[in-house]
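User: Sequence in, structure out. Go.
Assistant: Echoing your sequence, followed by the structure tokens.
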Amino acid sequence: MQVCGRNRGIVCFEWRQIVCRAITLILSTSLIAQEPARAILHNDGGVLLNSNPAPNSSAIFLHDVVQTQKGSFAKIDAQGSTVTIQPETVVRFEGEELILEHGSLQVNTSTAMRVRVDCVTVVPLTDEWTRYDVTDVDGKALGVADQNDVKIHYQGTSSHGSKQARFSDVTLHQGEQATREDKCGALAEHPAATDATGTILNSTWAKGAGVAVLGVLACWFLCRGNEPVSPSK
């Protein structure tokens, strides 16, 4: 049966419009679902974002890596959290979690944003505003509770003794501090050390852009007017 014949041009046009609108709705929903958690990075210079010089203000997304150089500070503003990045620090943004590779952070959060240093994770114990510091120095993670309580969770084994005893969690009350070994085996490959092309192609935005391009092409073929997609049909 010929759907888009000359005598049915109006019906064919309306059918194409319906299909195009459906594709647009599906693409919009897909891109919204894939949009990662994001924040704003502020700095006054001397800061790298994914190994490139960072603008004074820039949006950051999941897996982005921030590195401050000597004498440089940066600040991450996320929903319900503010993070001050001290000089000579490398940190990866993971939405509700920060991965501290090296250096020092001060976190002020009302959303229980946590900081992980290899096997050690510092976790706020309340949804109220909590301020704490985390420093990674010489293979040890130092946690300091400045306002409200935090927990230091260690997932690993001690390198001392033959029994490989597991460290227990510790709660830091306001004004207290504690240190834990942060090493628990080989470090995961750093995103900044991977091939740049592979990183870009594997990003959420790249995948979303690919879906959008396919959708636009499909809509173009369907929305060219009354001319059928195939000359033979």
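User: And one key feature?
Assistant: The two ends are 9 Å apart (CA to CA).
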